[in-house]
Structure to design on (211 residues):
């Protein structure tokens, strides 16, 4: 195996506050695409897993973080994180936003480990668009790679706003949809970080179990 290091050859601080030197012999790479309507919080979730903070006034944070850690060629909608799983395995996680109405490219299908479908728990319309989006992604992916059958996750963001009342997406309804479609399900808050790290860990652990 290669013993190459990141460009700057410095430890990378992951969301758990530890330092890890990248070594391809024991760091496994996972690529996760995020999809959903505009305004559901995809960028906030992505920034939260990369920096473990919520910075709504700094949309370039994720790119700056990636460049600082030697990832010079990432597109501006990607982030890099390091996570330690319960099995003590380290994984390097690249997360990016797939435009909702843009066909998935062959390159993305071939490299993607999984996909997260995000909706806003305070916006039922954002949940109503998920079924068609899941169907389209699966159709596009299997057209390119017939054996494609990746683990998917449904994520309800803005959990912190549920206590404010108003029209909400029923958790039981969302979970039922996820179960019917073989998807994992979590509700999270990108504002305070609730459930973010745990969701990504659960997704990656599930992928490991089926490898």
């Amino acid at each position: 195996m290669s013993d190459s290091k990141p460009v700057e050859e410095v430890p990378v601080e992951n969301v758990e506050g530890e330092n890890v030197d990248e070594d391809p012999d024991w760091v496994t790479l996972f690529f996760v695409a995020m999809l959903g309507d505009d305004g559901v919080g995809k960028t906030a979730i992505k920034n939260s897993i990369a920096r473990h903070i919520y910075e709504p006034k700094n949309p370039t944070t994720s790119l700056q973080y990636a460049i600082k850690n030697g990832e010079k060629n990432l597109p501006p909608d990607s982030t890099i994180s390091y996570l330690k799983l319960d099995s003590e395995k380290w994984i390097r996680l690249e997360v990016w936003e797939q435009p909702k109405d843009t066909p998935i490219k062959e390159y993305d299908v071939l490299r993607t480990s999984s996909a997260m479908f995000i909706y806003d728990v305070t916006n039922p319309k954002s949940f109503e668009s998920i079924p068609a989006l899941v169907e389209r992604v699966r159709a596009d992916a299997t057209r390119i790679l017939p054996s494609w059958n990746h683990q998917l996750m449904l994520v309800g963001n803005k959990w912190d706003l549920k206590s404010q009342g108003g029209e909400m997406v029923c958790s039981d309804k969302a979970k039922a949809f996820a179960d019917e479609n073989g998807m994992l399900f979590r509700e999270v808050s990108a504002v305070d970080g609730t459930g973010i790290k745990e969701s990504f860990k659960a997704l990656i652990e599930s992928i490991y179990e089926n490898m």
